[in-house]
Design brief:
The protein is mostly helical. It has a single domain, classed as MetI-like (MetI-like fold). It contains twelve helices and no strands. The longest helix is centred in the first third of the chain and has 35 residues. The radius of gyration is 21 Å and the shape is elongated. The termini are far apart.
Length: 226
Amino acid sequence: MFDLLTKYIPNLMDYSDEFIKSLGETIQMLFLSGIYSFIVGLFLGTLLVVTRKGNILENALIHKTLNGMVNLFRSIPFVILITALIPLTRIISGTFIGVEGTIFPLVVGCTPFFIRQVDMALSDIDKGLIEAAQSMGLSPVGIIFRVYLRESIPALARSTTITAISLLGLTAMGGAVGAGGLGAFVIRYGHNRFYQDITYVSVVVILIIVTIIQFIGNIIIKKTSH
């Protein structure tokens, strides 16, 4: 088996230890930044919905400010964003390179996208359910948890799946500016040294990760749909 791999992917075998390390870095970036983006994005996305005109916590100032910030950060290409955030990243993380220096820019780059996904998911809630909850005397917090979030679980699972796949793409893009992971590995060897086997295997690995994310997302959607 080893001889067969050496024959067809010789360059990857030469750098197999670095490849495994890069794969681990990508998974670490995806997991940590994904958790932070989910928490912040769910909170701010919910806030964006409930403060919209006609909703339970209507507040034009908060809604317009938050909506404007989401649109602003969504419009900035990630490669430019990660560079622009270097001073702030250095303060928060102590470094602006490697995995530790990439988590914060990934969260900043991913969260606005997820906020918009949450916005769309929660905005589809039947207004009749909200009115019924209000007539039962539920507080705004109760309506948020028992109506908005509870009824949107399948849609939120779908949104989380889409966001996680997009975040995986951001981790690869971060490799262009010293983020580490598979992106940096492919740029260093697959692109700069023209080791095509490294590029092709890395693409296959990324596709496998995407498939796993999609599979898990589909299971959650299926289990929570009613």
